[in-house]
Amino acid sequence: EPEVTQTPSHQVTQMGQEVILRCVPISNHLYFYWYRQILGQKVEFLVSFYNNEISEKSEIFDDQFSVERPDGSNFTLKIRSTKLEDSAMYFCASSPWGAREQYFGPGTRLTVT
Amino acid sequence: AQKVTQAQTEISVVEKEDVTLDCVYETRDTTYYLFWYKQPPSGELVFLIRRNSFDEQNEISGRYSWNFQKSTSSFNFTITASQVVDSAVYFCALSEEAYGGSQGNLIFGKGTKLSVKP
């Protein structure tokens, strides 16, 4: 069964460094999302992406964040200058046209020291 | 404003007991979608079910069943004859109708941690 994949599974970085989290959505899906989950808390929406542009973003998704679909398969989340409070599990999700459910990847645990 | 409330933070049961996880939602939209996701200890989020606001039929899938009641804005999830493998955090989520280039983001509740003991 096709699934969303994410790399790396764990990333440790120093405050102020840039990180890029990578995702490969399910191949025939058209809508892509990033969510984050701070340890022990609920899952929070960051951004949605469709047709090569951002369709929605939350207050969390400020100028430090950007997303890109550089080719036909990858979907990336970049954090320009990481802060301690960016430490969280970052989930990528995708959904096909006409279906509301989103399929999540296994997540990337980002630790900012 | 949209909101999902899962009042039960943690539930502990013994194997073979039935357990119901509560979910109450708030939305101003007349068209919306409700979901349950499972997050086992390994951390991934597994989609379990979606219900549309215009379809109040309850659903059963094996040991899982869902009770959607618009009158009380609730979408409860029951596991019958629970098993140790059901131990996980369960999230209820809401998505409102969206237009243009969006299918609506998910608003999650805080989750209920279910522990099933042998």
How would you sum up this structure, described in words?
The complex is a heterodimer of chains A (about 110) and B (about 120). In chain A, about 35% of the residues are buried. In chain A, strand 5 and strand 6 form a beta hairpin. Chain A has about 110 residues and is an all-beta fold. Chain A is globular. Helix content of chain A is about 0%, strand content about 50%. Chain A is built from no helices and 11 strands. Chain A has strands at about 5, 10-15, 20-25, 30-35, 45-50, 55, 65-70, 75-80, 90-95, 105, 110. Chain B has no helices and 12 strands. In chain B, strands 2, 5, 6, 10, 11 and 12 form a 6-stranded mixed sheet that branches. Chain B has a 4-stranded antiparallel sheet with strand order 3-9-8-7, with no helix packed on it. Chain B has a two-stranded antiparallel ribbon with strand order 1-4. Chains A and B meet through strand 4, strand 5, strand 6, strand 9 and strand 10 of A and strand 5, strand 6, strand 10 and strand 11 of B.
Report the count of strand segments of chain B: 12
Radius of gyration of chain B: 14 Å
- How far the N terminus sits from the C terminus of chain B, by CA atoms, comes to 41 Å
Determine the mean pLDDT of chain A: 94
Rg of chain A from C-alpha positions? Answer: 13 Å
- The oligomeric status of these chains comes to heterodimer
Which runs of chain B of at least 5 residues are low in confidence (pLDDT < 50)? none
Give a count of the beta strands of chain A, DSSP E runs of length 2 or more.
11
Order of helices and strands of chain A: EEEEEEEEEEE
Outline type of chain B = globular
* pLDDT < 50 stretches of chain A: none
- Mean pLDDT of chain B, rounded to whole units? 93
Biggest sheet architecture of chain A: 7 strands, mixed
Topology overview:
The complex is a heterodimer of chains A (113) and B (118).
Chain A: E1 5-7, E2 10-13, E3 19-24, E4 31-37, E5 43-50, E6 53-57, E7 65-68, E8 75-79, E9 88-95, E10 103-104, E11 108-112
Parallel strand pairs in A: 2-11
Antiparallel strand pairs in A: 1-3, 3-8, 4-5, 4-9, 5-6, 7-8, 9-10, 9-11
Chain B: E1 3-5, E2 10-14, E3 19-21, E4 24-26, E5 32-39, E6 46-52, E7 59-61, E8 64-69, E9 74-79, E10 88-96, E11 107-108, E12 112-117
Parallel strand pairs in B: 2-12
Antiparallel strand pairs in B: 1-4, 3-9, 5-6, 5-10, 7-8, 8-9, 10-11, 10-12
